[in-house]
Amino acid sequence: MKKAETMLSKTKFSRLFDLCNIIVLGFCMLVAVLPFIHLAALSLSSKPYVMANLVFFRPKGFHLENYDVIFRSRIFMQTLVNSVVRVIVGLTVNLLLVVLTAYPLSIGERRLRGRNAFLLYFFFTMLFNGGMIPTFLLVRDLNLINTLWALILPGAVQVFSIIIMINYMRGIPGELYEAAVLDGAGHFKVLMQIFLPLSLPCIATLIVFSAVGHWNSWFDGMLYLKSPTKWPLQTYLQSILADLQSLSQKIGMSAEEAQRYAQISDLSLISAQMFISIVPILLLYPFMQRYFISGIRLGSVKG
Q1: Residue 93: what pLDDT?
Q2: Which CATH number goes with the domain that contains 124?
Q3: How many structural domains are present in the chain?
Q4: Residues 40 and 108 grouped into a single domain
């Protein structure tokens, strides 16, 4: 009898606990989703309703003028291509350097002398850097100003990603490495046929980190690129409202285009820009989701 009462009490407690979890998670979901719904409503609403602060979670005076203005801009497609190229090239460079750095540092002190000194060096660079002005002077002296490489090379070695990859690779059984070496495999073959296939969850995680970083970055484009036609998309979108008149002169925006920009709400246009900016990442994440959680967890806790 007492056992049955205990089981009933546990069942009630479990149901109460599940209910509390549902309430808390539901609240967190609303906190995360409602701002996006609000932005969507703003981007699809007409200027009078937006200026009067009458738009909350449903569009008022529905129209697609904000998106039409952005996509009709003659420079928009060029900056979009620039961003896609930057993500592809930057992601490739980042992953290549991360993997080639993490592999020798993960196979142990006995196989790589001075391993701890290299780790300390990379860790130091993660905590301290030269700053914006020395970096700009270095990029200028290397004649990288107004080139794509000015956006990629300063952040090519991502130390945080290297640490995650090292910890993940250290979790791969050493017996696999030793068996491959006994079979006559070299380091390149061991890396390509053993370490990389087993590190796919971690690599997928780093792909998300790197892609998001390159896609969302806008300040370096404004700092290193003189020609607006070479800007990434984020730099262009940020500049639309920052100085519309000067921008229209730089990129040859027609008087009609400038007038259309002036007739729409700044807040609506910003909302549309934000949605355009997050769509590629939203499309990328579902393909990486099954690897993302396990990759970041295992790459973080292994010592």
Answers
A1: 95
A2: 1.10.3720.10
A3: 2
A4: no
> What pLDDT was estimated at residue 92?
95
Q: Give every residue of the chain whose pLDDT is below 50, as ranges.
A: 245, 247-251, 296-297, 299-303
Write down the residue that tokens 């296939």 correspond to.
197
Token pair listed for 255: 């008087």
Alpha carbons 22 and 289: distance in angstroms, whole number: 22
CA pair distance 36, 272, nearest whole angstrom: 11
Q: How far is CA 149 from CA 42, 77, 85, 93, 160, in A?
A: 37, 20, 11, 11, 21
pLDDT digits (tens, 9 = 90+) for 28-80: 888 888 888 888 888 888 777 777 777 888 888 787 777 777 777 778 788 88
pLDDT of residue 77: 81
State which residues form the domain around 271.
65-301
Q: How far is CA 15 from the centre of its chain?
A: 38
Q: What's the 3-state SS for the chain?
A: CHHHHHHHHHHHHHHHHHHHHHHHHHHHHHHHHHHHHHHHHHHCCCHHHHHCCCCCCCCCCCCCHHHHHHHHCCCHHHHHHHHHHHHHHHHHHHHHHHHHHHHHHHCCCCCCCCHHHHHHHHHHHHHCCCCHHHHHHHHHHCCCCCCCHHHHHHHCCCHHHHHHHHHHHHCCCHHHHHHHHHCCCCHHHHHHHHHHHHCHHHHHHHHHHHHHHHHHCCHHHHHHCCCHHHCCHHHHHHHHHHCHHHHHHHHCCCHHHHHHHHHCCHHHHHHHHHHHHHHHHHHHHHHHHHHHHHHHHHHHHCC
232 backbone dihedrals φ, ψ, rounded to 5°: -75, 165
Position 303 scores a pLDDT of 43
260's tokens: 């259309």
Domain-embedded: residue 286: yes
